[in-house]
Amino acid sequence: MTRKFSYMQFAIMLFASGAAHGETGYFLQDTTTNKNIKLSEVEVSRRFNPIKIVPGKLSYQVNKNTMSASGSVLELLRKMPGVTILPNGKISLNGQAGVQLLIDGKTNFIDGENLINFLSSMPASSLDIVELITQPDAGMDANGEARFINLKRGNRTSNGLNVFLSTNAEQGKYNRNYHNITVAANLRKLDISNTYAYANGSDLVDVNSTRYLSNTIHTANKMLSLDMDAIRKKKYSNHYYNGTLDYRPNDKIKMGTYLLLSDQERTKEETVGSAFFYSRSQADSIIATSNGLRHNFKNFSTGAHFTVQLVGGSKWENYLDLQQVKQAETQHQLLDKFIGDGAPVSLPQELRGKSGGKVNITTIQSKYMLDIRPDIAASVGGKFTQVDMRTSSLFQQSDNSDWQERPDLTNAFDHEERLKALFMQVGYSPSALFRMDLGLRYEAAAFHSGTANGLGTDLTIVRSYKNFFPNLTMTYALDNKQKLSINYHRRVNRPNFKDLSPFVEVNDPYLYEKGNPALKPEFVHKMELTWLFKNSYSFRMFYSLRQDAISKSYNLDGNKRTVVMPINLEHASSIGLRINATSISPMRNWNIQANGNLIYRYFEWVTANDVYHNRQLTPALQLQNNIKLPFKIKLDVNCFVNGSTAEGQASIASLWSVNSGLRKTFLQDKFTLYIYANDLFRTNRPKITFSSDFMEGKYRESYDSRAVGINLSYRLHRGKKSNLKNAPANDRLEENNRINY
């Protein structure tokens, strides 16, 4: 055993030395027997862990793992530890909602179905690192609940041409396709990158809901129930383009620009059946509704950056971003009403409407970083953001073939914001064992909103606030493997523009959804205590307090319609435990990444009649299994389970899902074949219950989430071997994340 170990030691040493001189044969002499041994080949391998954990951040190196071969960023994120994406576009991190998506440090503004379509159009091959951030510093915008997913794109730093091609086909009940091409080149001092992607397909959503309506509080005497069944077939077509140009005239200066275009077309055909019951034996009346909707969403973003490396290791970064979002939507609805025996009650009713809007966002940020002393580093900067939003809607209803305007659905909405911010972050490391990071951000925000309609209820709201947002992190190294960290930060959660807009989305005559121009910003206090082991395992305890928490409400109007609208709650808080393990190896070729949470959530809100509470203890577990099979085939099995969750006025039932895939590379790892199956048991089906004055309800959604697919990708490189490095993080968070209408 000792002799064998000596052979391996010397073999590795001589292999490294000989490889540097191009040698192909290696000789060792056994000094115990004076016998020469020739080794024709020596293979040295080690397990690479693409995940690194530091207090407040988990980083995944995409370019070090073949996960990027799965095609789109949407598929990549579904495999990230702690990330859960529902088919309706809701993203949660570590079992908690309220996640903001960043691209190179800049917040993405899309939400819901638009977000799903955008992520499915963005190629994962364009990414270098994905960061999951829970402790942002003062240089990041104070807006949000301190849960960020940052997609950092890579850029080449050595001469050469790189081409990446990918195509993906997926089949559930309906088929979906995705194709992309990326061409990147480095011409000495110039980096150029262009990416185009196209996605199209169909999806199906089956919705069932029951609402109990009463004339008495708490619905103790259920007088009337309304059952709704809806089938929504959606078709989409998305185009995505991103181009970047970076120039480095010398080692001290870097400048560049980018252009991002996204064009999404979506149509929806919906049939809705609504049945009213005074007794469960027979429906009292039935409403049959058909909806046709056409939706177009366009995004144009451009900007420039300029960075100078100054003396003493200091650096000055400057960014300018210009963004414009346009949305247009047309809707046509036909309604028939029948009594319980099927006889028509009245002539069919027809509703048609169109809405549209434009949002312009301008952002300027400057940041200066310097080393004050060997043990003190600091950054200071400022930011200005201007938001201008103009939207309008017009609805008409047919009455004996005569179209009349619906003033309750027709309105115009203008919204302006001005945000000025100053920030400072200081890091102090008096020894190798202790580090303290202290930051302070000051924000002065001014808002002006105006709503006009035909009902004589025009509304103008003018607000302004000035606030400080501190953060503090202290880290102590127990030894060379273990660290303890404590963190506190204060943040604000400003309403997104969909929540502010008074536009009404008419699902059927008895279900409306609209915004609330009177929403106030929500302020968040959060603390975390972290134990970190080997930068691969962590255990966290955390507490969060939300003041004026923003949440959906469910109420009845005077016409017995259910109106879904965001409101400010009186109280919201959560306390919990979180465990991350990035590398568990039960067997040599089997690696597991685990993420577990146990969270207690508590919500309180007041109505005109009562005080309501919603509290629940929620366990959650996510596992990513990577198994190496013979013939260099890799098997991925990813699963998650979330227990019942309290979310504002609603409770979400337990949810679980299993995804699997097989991956094989060819042609010296240039060509990748990936075959996968999502939601194997079709269990990713959200179920929601809610209650309020005079109403209780339950709601279930079923998506075309169980699907099989195949992805083919090919990488081509010409020139010197490239070394991927991170593009600048562009540590700036824009207000545009709130344009998620």
UniProtKB/TrEMBL annotation:
It is found in: Cell outer membrane. Residues 1-22 form the signal peptide. This is TonB-dependent receptor. Residues 321-714 form the Outer membrane protein beta-barrel domain. GO terms for cellular component: cell outer membrane. Gene3D superfamilies: TonB-dependent receptor, beta-barrel domain (2.40.170.20). It comes from Sphingobacterium puteale. The keyword Protease does not apply. InterPro entries: Beta-barrel_TonB_sf, OMP_b-brl_3. Pfam families: OMP_b-brl_3. Keywords: Cell outer membrane, Membrane, Receptor, Signal.
